[in-house]
Known about the structure:
Blueprint: E1 59-64, E2 75-83, E3 89-100, E4 106-107, E5 109-111, E6 116-118, E7 123-130, E8 141-149, E9 152-163, E10 168-172, E11 175-177, E12 186-194, E13 200-204, E14 215-217, E15 220-224, E16 228-238, E17 242-252, E18 257-269
Parallel strand pairs: 11-18
Antiparallel strand pairs: 1-2, 2-7, 3-4, 3-6, 3-8, 5-7, 8-9, 10-12, 12-16, 13-15, 13-17, 14-16, 17-18
Amino acid sequence: MDTGPQHFRRPVRWRPTADWNVLQVTDMTAYRWLRYVGPSGGRAQTGEVQFLTAPASALQVSVRAPASMDFTGGNTVTAVITNGGSERISGVRPRLSVASVNDTTALSSHLLSGPVNLAPGRQAIVRWRVSLPLAATVGGYRVQVDAAVPGSPGARATATTQVDGPSVDAVPGPVRLAPGGAGQPVSTAMQLTNHWSRPIVVQWRNASPDYVGSGVLEPGRVTVPPHATVTAQVIVRPITAGPLQVPLTVTDVTGAEAVRWDVQLPIVQG
Length: 270
């Protein structure tokens, strides 16, 4: 008996790369025909779609990751692997991949445990420590855990989630050095955008107490809410025209240092 078309949805929560992208669909219904329907008004450049039936597996896996990744090295991804069958499963090897949703950048990770052996109905918790380099791509990251027994197609499971990637953008405005105004305080604006999912504190000061470049920077700080842009006032005592090095330190609200980097503030004549 034909009951008409049935719809199941599995949204893509990351920007697919120009390669195979696997979506896990949990649906026990038997279908005779399957088709791919793009979003209304969408212009997806899809080269090929395959519908594959995964072999029955007693393995189940779920994944937990921090809401956002940071540079402090405390990025821990946790997976729970369950044996839902009636027989013991030995030698389960969990594998983690963390890839940018914007390009093919992949982050390195360190597994904190070895192969997993599971009696029927038992669970195991495995963890990875994920490293985030200072040059990490801006934007989100797709986190995928695969748990499998090598050589056993029926012992495999996958879970996927997405986390925010860290980034802070800083755009300082120019400082104008008026004739005869060398050494006088001048205020300029600096736009700071927080791409983290938590508040951050941005601080700036001279590179060193005796540093004098094209001007002297007065120390300052501002708190930037999650996924927000604020305009901070920066006070400079310009000496001569040219770029002024502005060292920035970004910390989270607990004081844990996330990253340091320099931006160039232009001092212009006139």
